[in-house]
Structure formats: structure tokens, C-alpha cells
Amino acid sequence: MTTVRDQYEAFPYPERDPRDEKKRLILGSPSLPQEIDHYVFGGQRDWSQPLRILVAGGGTGDGLIQLTALLTQYGKPYTATYIDLSTASRKVAEARAETRGLKNITFITGSLLDAPNYGPFDYIDCCGVLHHLPDPDAGFRALRTALAPGGGMGFMVYAPYGRSGVYPLQEAFAALYADTPPKDRLKAARQVMENLPAGHPFKSNPNLNDHKSGDAGFYDLLLHSTDRAYDVQTLTDTLGRTGWSFAGFTVPILYDLARLAPVPDGMSPVQAMAVAEKLNGTIRTHTGYATDTPRAPATGKTRTLVPHIKGLQAAQLARAVAQGQAPALDTDGIKGKLALPKQAAPVIAAIDGRRNLQQIAAQTGLDPISFGGLWTKVEKTLLPWGLLVYSNVLR
To answer: Which of 52, 340, 346, 367 is most buried, with most CB under 10 Å away?
Structure first.
């Protein structure tokens, strides 16, 4: 039987060339420092204090490299611990860190279930790992035990509906090739895929592209020996059962039922998100944050917070708004437009990741009431798309 360790020794995932670190930094959620601050620390972390980081199931290093490279760039102190079962994946992650000259990283070959032995940690990155454990609850609990008071976790787990077609193929390939070595298993499965009918649910699913990115992507998506998906309700139940408090998803609009249908009286926020997930049908992964105790993400109600535009250039967005344009957006098949009043353009242009809201108001010459009205519209428009977070990491 091919084990998870065997898979990642044969096909370290995701496929990365350490030499590429000289040309690009791969960015994404979770584990952007600004995003961590927003969801875990209310946008008010003291970044002069070292951030104690655990990257649990770090693979070839995307989360580790992103977070430590950005903190190094910002001149913020940290210590990082990387844990992964695969020595092949660890070698790639180590080479990437060495290429960038990153320091204060401890690399460990082992299980994230042993994380409590190395903690406590202020922040834990666990992206694409917990759903591959034989007992995921044990993983959630181990990471919670390793967490320092006041800390949190950025996670990504698979979602069921956007992955339609995946699990029947996994089951079929497991029945056919369970005792086949990984590389032979890959070759045989690729041949079978060529014979699938055009109307197969997997071939008809436009949300799935990992299998097109190389052998490691194909294997991880369709040949994984241990793989499960979480719907919203199951995910939030699991977090609660294992000692975590759900803090929020990084793209809230995907879970906004009111965008699709009237929300019945008495329906809880989690129930509403669960219904929205079913109606959307396109969500492949759930990416979000969890904390040790219930804490709401940051909001502009606190005027001393520093806003950041994420995924867009503030100056470009300000120009578009000033010209009356409404930039189009598309995430997981959910389409929309950023419709903002022209008067908001100077406010957006003043967002530089260093000025807080009070300073932006002063910069634009707006009185508190006028600024408050405009900022409410900016926040209401950008937050649902995950384009606005609050953090003082650059100060």
C-alpha cells in the first residue's frame, strides 16, 4: 500500500525549483503577515517582538518561504520551525531558504502530531495537510496544544463541491493500483484518464487544474492514499471540537448567502455559510484562520488601525475609481465589480500600509463624518473579496 510518506518522497509537492527563488516570491493565502495580523491579532500585533512560527506539514516550502521572506524584507524578527514527513520535500524547502539567505529556521523531518514538543508558537501555518491525516482531529488537537496563548493558525483544507469528480477517481485508482509503486501508479492512471468519457464529472469540472501542473500535481489530486474534504459545517464543528475558534475565511463573499438568496430568520452565520457553499458549488478549498479564543477580525471601527489593499495596487484602484470605473472580479466562479464612488479615490490613494485611518483622513482633508461615510463604503466593498486587511507590520 502506497503511504503518504512514499508519495511525497517520490513526488515532492508542490513542484518547485529552488533556483526560481532568485526570480520570484510565490504569494498567497494563508500566511501573509498582513493577513495574519488582521485575522489573528486584530491588526494590532507588536511586530517588534519575534513571531514564533510553526509550518506544519511544510512540503516544498511555499508557506515557510513566503512568511519568512516577507518578515525578513520588512525587518521584523521571527523564529520558524518547519516539520514534514518527507525528506525529499524538506530538501527542496531547505534549498529554497538557502537561495534566499533566510535565517532562524529549524528544519525537522517528522509528524505534525509531535508539534507540541517544539512549541509554543504564536502562529501556525497548516496548508493542505490536515485533510491528509488518517485521524485529522488528532492533527487539529496537536496543533492547538502547540499554540501559545493569543495565537492562531492559518489553514487550507479541501472542500467537497468544487472537487466534484475527484473522489470517485481516487477510489477507482486505489482499487486498481493500491500496491503499485508511486511512479508506476502514476503512469497507469494517466493512461486510464485518456479513456474517460468526455462527460465525466471530473472532465466537466472547470475548477480543477492541479493535475495539469505536472506529475506531483496529478498524483496529489487523483492518487493520494489519504484524502478527505470538509464542508463548512464539518469544518467549523471540527475546529470547535478540537479547541479552536473559527476566525474567518479569507474571501468571505464566497460564503455570503445574502448574495444568492434571502437569509431565513433564525439561521446562524455558520448555517448560512454552509448553504451558500452548496449553492455556489465551486469552492475547492477552504482557506481561513482560527484562534485559541473567540476573536473577531479587525475592522475600521478602530481608527488607529492601518489598512492594506491586498492583491491590487492602491494607486491603480484609486485611478480606476476616480475615472468612474468598476473593476471586474472573479474568484471561484463568483463574479462581481468594485463599485465605489469617485469621492473615495483620494482615500484609496492614501493607503500605503503605513498610515492609519486617522492619518488617511487627515491626509485627504476630510472631516470625521465625511471620512467615516466614505470608509464604510470602501470597507464594505473590499472586505468581502479579501482585498482589504488591517495590519501595522510595515510601521
So the answer is: 340
- Cβ-Cβ contacts under 8 Å for 175 (sequence gap 6 or more): none
Q: What is the pTM of this model?
A: 0.95
Give the whole-angstrom CA distance, residue 117 versus residue 108: 12
Q: How far apart are CA 3 and CA 227, in angstroms?
A: 12
The DSSP H or E segment spanning 316 is helix 314-322
What are 52-63's pLDDT values in tens digits? 999 999 999 999
The answer to whether the beta carbons of residues 159 and 229 sit under 8 Å apart is yes
220-232 confidence digits (pLDDT tens): 999 998 999 999 9
The cell for 296 is: 473577531
Taking the CA of residue 156 as centre, how many other CA atoms within 13 Å lie in the half-sphere pointing to its CB?
Answer: 18
**Which grid cell is 47?**
511586530
C-alpha count within 13 angstroms, C-beta hemisphere, residue 247 = 28
Q: Which residues pair with 52 in a beta bridge?
A: 79
- The residue type found at 128 is G
C-alpha cell at position 299: 475592522
Counting DSSP H helices and E strands in the chain, the numbers are 14, 11
Q: How many CA atoms lie within 13 A of 316 on its CB side?
A: 6
Q: Rounded to whole angstroms, how far apart are CA atoms 361 and 15?
A: 45
Three cell numbers, residue 21: 527563488
What helix, strand, coil percent values describe the chain, rounded to 5?
A: 45, 15, 40
- Residue 231 to residue 236: CA distance in whole angstroms: 9
The torsion region of residue 59 among left (phi > 0), alpha (psi -120 to 50) and beta comes to left
CA 249 to CA 267: how far, in whole Å?
A: 19
Please provide the DSSP assignment of 317-368 as one string.
Answer: HHHHHHTT---EEEETTEEEE----GGGHHHHHT--SSS-HHHHHHHHT--H
